[in-house]
């Protein structure tokens, strides 16, 4: 009984177990699924989602109905900018990355300022900003995807690097370590949880709430751009809606991981496990050769079920 | 009057909120024509019991017997339908709706069964407002949005809301907290009328003087159980307090005064402070002094403390003495962080909403203002050690520092709020009605703590809505009225009657009469 | 202090005054670029384009007044569009047409009921819940109608496109009917309950307002409005696109903001939102007539949306600074 109780209180663990269960389920459905290469493949796919969902985690933790719906567009923008500036030259990788990260940071900053100073609800601000970024992409590219991916990106990101493990997985875990440091061992992290729980208390305890909000959304934009850069190393090509399919799963991954939608509670480990679960579900659905429409519905149903389990708010009557 | 006798009996009510047992055996009986006072310390369950009676909360065990028949309320509507109305202290008003809209919400008189009869609403509202005529400002109009009203008038709207139902049983849950003495007098006149009309009244309160004025009987709760009752005319305060507190120790009425040491430096000087509420306040607080701020609620006391702490904008001069050098420093804080950097601390009265992060750990709560001082990466061992030290100093009863603050009792939770500031060794401590709703035992510990802090030279600015507390603790009390200091009481002038009369100027009375 | 209260009163009672001003400005600008704007045929055409969004904005307003939000409203439009176009045969009789319309409304309301169930009964957070259901509904729409196509009965569509009873475009009649219905609703107990729930749900509950029922009903109404929007869309374009609703959700929120309704609930009305839709439509007209290069049109449109969304906050910021 005790174990079951402590399980319920530890969503990342549940998600991890669920991921393992799903992996074996995959083996049942498709023979040959259960091998080490497939496992690495899943991990690799999950890594991209995980990196993209890192910013979403921070934003949701910050409370105030925090959510970042511009992540998908930022991923696309970052990938396109990298693709163009890179133009296939290894030497241009770092400058391209710098520009992409800068762009993402700037967009995040605009989101943060809108939410913190103009008091625009995060949903509305980031949704609107997503439109602006998409418009920006159209205006910049004018429909033509010029450029090329540098070979070194593919080698270090998506091809097997050490022991057959693709580079992005190492990068993912390094990022996780950095985020853990940020959340659990820095004043920013402690203050982030504080503003997620109760902004009045936080302010009356000396926390500069608007600054925290701006930093958080900026980080979200930065991390999304980083995710877009990484993603390019995998897809090796760009198209108009590259990042779009990652937006919904980024929210779902955070929820699966047990981070409260109201803020103030949760962790990045949870999001990582959540990314694994969602990647496995998407893989399974693809393996079962279900049409796109059905996959979409399933994801929606899954999120709905998840919030029914994890996300119920306090009832009016107790 | 037609047969409208009402009787209610709550029997052995049990209520659990998750893991917390709020009521283990709550009982209460009341009938037509009487006022029953429901007493209990903070955490005794008296608010929970009234919520069970009014259908807001469902009991886990026990039953309610109304007019001789057992009843179960599925929602507040159920209780309302049976003629039970309640007046809360935490108001149930919709800020942007008008007085009239709030009073008649969900039970408006209807035309053709569906359309609100605006005329009936208007006349009905005016009749109700007239009940308090002469005790409220002319600003209390049917068409006024409730958000524009001061707290006392909002409380009155809350009362009128209950009355608009023409209830048979009225529960007043700490309903007099925001009212001034004239309004309380008028309310008590109305209660006498209600008794004659055959209504039953339950008066939940911790104000002894009011209970002894208006109640016929008293029922006492302690730690979630009804421990006894008494007929008011046959008992006295001490007996009731003993039942509430459980031991023979009486509430210390007057603590030993500590005069401010001669030549103590001025810690804080305010000159001509104006804010959205304050109209020119000037004062000085010395090191080691406990300066009280009093007056009716909503006159700017809380506003003043928030302004000093940098939480709200203001104009005027603020000067702090710089540490030890004897020099003075002109300051103007625009954020609490700045005040904190000048060794000022602020303890709010509403700890749940302003002082604590309920779902986070005790450690995180205690260190919230201070994390920046532990470097990057945070030196957790040092933070933990410091928090442990302060928790021990305050005799904080806890399982571990990592337990959520919500697992603590009210008194211990308040210690966390105080602890998080004491950790920083403030030189100026701002207390915003910190003992409101705190039980007697914790209050006593708190008073001792204040005495210790004064010995160490901390300057304290202390707002309390409890006159007795101010009189007992402070050598000097500034009374605020309409955003100004109406009187400075000390020594011989520091008496209850002086305090009360300074709280209400003749000007106030004239304005109400016109 | 009294004076500030008066202005606050006015803006509480008539939140759409600012929208009215913006409308006049937008109309004048539009007239400049398109002098035949007020010609009956052009007016009718414009209103026909606006009508679907008007329905959606009305539905969104009601949900927002109850302090919720419906991110799935566009998806419901897509879903009902798919249903309408696949169920409606080109030579349907009047009776069959009515049946299909009823079916469409039923589907919309059922979708809204799912939202309402989640938010009102299960107490799930509105944003993420309707975000999830949006995926479900749009997936369903794609499943029913994988590619744009289908058609509506010709006579019905023609009547819709050309109807100008008493010389006034049909769109104006419908908008007027909606506004009338709203003002009636506001004067009922339901209306005040709605504002109470949006203003302070806990207080409303303690005052015996049936909060759950009210919240549930707002989402069902929203679904119904989405269904009507789908009807207007398919009649207007005589075809069905399963992705048509995607942009409508954000547009409806912009219209609500422009119209002066408060996003946190408890204040506002549909009159402003309808004005907001027209303003948005006029602005889009202006963009296309102003010869903005096509690759930049999306960006300009999005920038205007962001400015509209940020404007109330910007005004508040200025007001706060002045204190």
Radius of gyration of chain B: 24 Å
How many discrete structural domains of chain B?
Answer: 3
Strand content of chain B: 25-35%
The chain-level structural class of chain B is alpha/beta
The coarse silhouette of chain A is globular
Give the CATH class of the largest domain in chain B: Alpha Beta
Average of pLDDT of chain A = 91
Main sheet characteristics of chain A: 2 strands, antiparallel
Unreliable parts of chain B: 248-253, 506-514
CATH architecture of chain A: Orthogonal Bundle
Count of alpha/pi helices of chain B: 18
Largest interface: A-C, 50 and 51 residues
CATH homologous superfamily grouping of the largest domain in chain B: P-loop containing nucleotide triphosphate hydrolases
Taking Cα atoms only, what radius of gyration of chain A do you get, to the nearest Å?
19 Å
Question: Mind explaining what this structure looks like?
Answer:
The complex is a heterotrimer of chains A (318), B (514) and C (323). With 318 residues, chain A is mainly alpha-helical. Chain A contains 14 helices and two strands, in the order H-H-H-H-H-H-H-E-E-H-H-H-H-H-H-H. Chain A has helices spanning 2-8, 11-29, 36-61, 71-86, 93-116, 122-141, 151-157, 167-184, 187-197, 199-204, 209-235, 247-256, 268-287, 292-310, and strands at 160-162, 165-166. In chain A, strand 1 and strand 2 (165-166) form a beta hairpin. In chain A, helix 2 packs parallel to helix 13 and helix 12 packs parallel to helix 14 (292-310). Chain A is globular and about 55 Å long. The mean pLDDT of chain A is 91. Chain B has three domains: 7-245, Rossmann fold (3-Layer(aba) Sandwich); 266-343 and 426-513, Rossmann fold (3-Layer(aba) Sandwich); 361-425, no CATH class. Chain B has a six-stranded mixed beta sheet, with helices on both faces. Chain B has a six-stranded mixed beta sheet with strand order 18-19-20-15-21-22, sandwiched between helices. Chain C is mainly α. Chain C has helices at 2-13, 17-33, 40-65, 73-87, 94-121, 126-144, 154-162, 170-186, 189-199, 201-206, 211-237, 246-258, 270-289, 294-322. Chain C has 14 helices and no strands. Chain C is globular. Chains in contact: A-B, A-C, B-C.
């Amino acid at each position: 009984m005790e174990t079951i109780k402590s399980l319920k209180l530890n969503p990342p663990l549940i998600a991890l177990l669920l991921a393992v269960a799903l992996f074996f389920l995959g083996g049942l459905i498709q023979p040959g699924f259960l091998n080490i290469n497939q496992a690495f493949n899943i991990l690799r796919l999950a890594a991209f989602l995980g990196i993209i969902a890192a910013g979403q985690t921070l934003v949701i933790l910050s409370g105030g109905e925090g959510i970042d719906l511009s992540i998908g567009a930022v991923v696309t923008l970052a990938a396109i900018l990298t693709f163009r500036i890179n133009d296939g030259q290894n030497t241009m990788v770092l400058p391209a990355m710098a520009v992409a990260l800068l762009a993402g940071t700037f967009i995040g900053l605009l989101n943060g300022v809108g939410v913190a100073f103009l008091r625009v609800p995060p949903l509305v601000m980031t949704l609107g900003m997503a439109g602006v970024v998409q418009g920006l992409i159209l205006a910049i590219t004018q429909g033509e995807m010029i450029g090329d991916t540098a070979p070194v990106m593919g080698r270090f990101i998506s091809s097997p690097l050490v022991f057959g493990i693709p580079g992005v997985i190492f990068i993912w875990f390094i990022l996780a370590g950095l985020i853990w440091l940020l959340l659990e061992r820095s004043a920013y992290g402690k203050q982030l949880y504080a503003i997620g729980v109760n902004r009045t208390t936080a302010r009356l305890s000396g926390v500069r709430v608007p600054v925290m909000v701006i930093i958080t959304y900026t980080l979200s934009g930065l991390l999304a751009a980083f995710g877009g850069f990484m993603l390019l190393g995998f897809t090796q090509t760009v198209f108009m809606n590259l990042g779009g399919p990652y937006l919904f799963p980024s929210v779902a991954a955070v929820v699966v991981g047990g981070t409260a939608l109201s803020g103030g509670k949760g962790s990045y480990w949870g999001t990582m496990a959540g990314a694994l679960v969602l990647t496995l579900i998407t893989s399974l659905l693809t393996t079962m050769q279900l049409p796109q429409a059905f996959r979409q519905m399933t994801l929606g149903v899954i999120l709905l079920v998840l919030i029914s389990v994890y996300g119920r708010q306090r009832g009016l009557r107790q | 009057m037609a047969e409208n006798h009402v009787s209610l009996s709550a029997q052995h009510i049990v209520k659990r909120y998750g893991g917390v047992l709020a009521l283990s055996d709550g009982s209460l009986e009341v009938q037509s024509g009487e006022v029953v006072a429901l007493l209990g310390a903070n955490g005794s369950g008296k608010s929970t019991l009234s919520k069970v009676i009014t259908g807001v909360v469902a009991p886990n065990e026990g039953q309610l017997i109304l007019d001789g028949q057992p009843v179960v309320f599925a929602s507040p509507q159920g209780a309302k339908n049976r003629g039970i109305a309640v007046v809360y202290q935490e108001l149930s008003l919709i800020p942007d709706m008008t007085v009239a809209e709030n009073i008649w919400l969900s039970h408006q008189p209807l035309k053709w069964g569906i359309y609100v009869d605006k005329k009936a609403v208007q006349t009905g509202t005016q009749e109700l407002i007239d009940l308090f005529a002469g005790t409220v400002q002319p600003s209390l109009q049917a068409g006024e949005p409730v958000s524009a009203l001061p707290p006392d008038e909002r409380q009155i709207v809350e009362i009128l809301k209950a009355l608009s139902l023409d209830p048979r049983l009225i529960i007043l849950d700490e309903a007099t907290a925001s009212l001034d003495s004239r309004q309380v007098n008028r309310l008590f006149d109305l209660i006498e009328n209600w008794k004659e009309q055959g209504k039953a009244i339950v008066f939940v309160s911790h104000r002894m003087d009011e209970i002894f004025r208006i109640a016929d009987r008293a029922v006492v709760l302690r730690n979630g159980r009804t421990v006894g009752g008494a007929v008011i005319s046959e008992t006295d305060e001490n007996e009731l307090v003993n039942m509430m507190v459980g031991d023979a120790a009486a509430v210390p009425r007057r603590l030993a005064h500590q005069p401010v040491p001669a030549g103590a430096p001025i810690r804080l000087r305010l000159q001509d402070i104006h804010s959205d509420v304050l109209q020119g306040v000037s004062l000085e607080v010395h090191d080691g002094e406990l300066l009280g701020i009093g007056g009716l609620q909503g006159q700017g006391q809380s506003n003043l403390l928030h302004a000093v702490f940098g939480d709200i904008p203001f104009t005027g001069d603020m000067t702090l003495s710089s540490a030890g050098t004897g020099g003075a420093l002109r300051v103007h804080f625009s954020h609490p962080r700045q005040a904190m950097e000048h060794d000022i601390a602020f303890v709010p009265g509403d700890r749940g909403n302003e002082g604590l992060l309920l779902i986070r750990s005790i450690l995180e709560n205690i260190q919230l203002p201070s994390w920046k001082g532990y470097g990057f990466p945070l030196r957790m061992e040092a933070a933990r050690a410091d928090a442990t030290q302060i928790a021990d100093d305050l005799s904080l009863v806890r399982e571990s520092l990592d337990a959520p603050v919500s697992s603590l009792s009210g008194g211990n939770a308040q210690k966390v709020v105080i602890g998080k500031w004491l950790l920083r060794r403030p030189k100026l401590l701002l207390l915003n009605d910190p003992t409101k709703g705190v039980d007697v035992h914790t209050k006593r510990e708190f008073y001792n703590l204040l005495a210790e802090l004064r010995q160490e030279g901390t300057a304290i600015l202390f707002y309390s809505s409890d006159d007795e507390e101010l009189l007992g603790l402070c050598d000097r009390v500034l009374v605020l009225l309409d955003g100004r200091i109406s009187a400075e009481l000390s020594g011989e002038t520091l008496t209850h009657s002086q305090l009360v009369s300074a709280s209400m100027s003749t000007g106030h009375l004239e304005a109400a009469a016109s | 202090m009294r004076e500030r209260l008066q202005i606050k009163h006015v803006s509480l009672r008539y939140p759409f005054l600012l929208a009215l001003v913006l409308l006049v400005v937008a109309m004048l600008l539009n007239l400049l670029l398109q002098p035949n704007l007020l010609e009956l045929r052009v007016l009718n055409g414009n209103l026909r384009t606006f009508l679907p969004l008007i329905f959606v904005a009305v539905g969104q307003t009601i949900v927002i007044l109850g302090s919720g939000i419906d991110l799935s409203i566009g998806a419901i439009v897509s879903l009902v569009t798919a249903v309408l176009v696949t169920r409606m045969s080109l030579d349907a009789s009047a009776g069959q047409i009515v049946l299909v319309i009823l079916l469409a409304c039923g589907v919309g309301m059922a979708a809204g009921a799912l939202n309402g169930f989640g938010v009102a009964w299960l107490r799930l957070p509105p944003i993420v819940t309707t975000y999830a259901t949006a995926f479900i509904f749009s997936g369903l729409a794609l499943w029913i109608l994988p590619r744009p196509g289908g058609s509506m009965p010709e006579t019905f569509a023609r009547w819709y496109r050309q109807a100008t009873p008493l010389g006034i475009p049909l769109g104006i009649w419908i908008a007027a009917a909606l506004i009338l219905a709203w003002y009636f609703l506001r004067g009922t107990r339901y209306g005040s309950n709605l504002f109470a729930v949006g203003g302070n749900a806990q207080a409303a509950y303690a005052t015996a307002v049936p909060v759950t029922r009210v919240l549930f009903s707002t989402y069902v109404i929203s679904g119904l409005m989405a269904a009507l929007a789908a009807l207007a869309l398919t009649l207007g374009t005589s075809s069905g696109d399963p992705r048509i609703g995607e942009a409508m959700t954000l547009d409806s929120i912009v219209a609500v903001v422009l119209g002066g309704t408060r996003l946190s609930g408890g204040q506002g009305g549909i009159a402003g939102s309808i004005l907001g839709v027209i303003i948005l439509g006029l602005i889009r007209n202006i963009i296309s007539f102003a010869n903005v290069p096509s690759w930049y049109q999306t960006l300009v449109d999005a920038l205007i949306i962001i400015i509209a969304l940020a404007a109330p906050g910007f005004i508040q910021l200025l007001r706060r600074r002045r204190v």
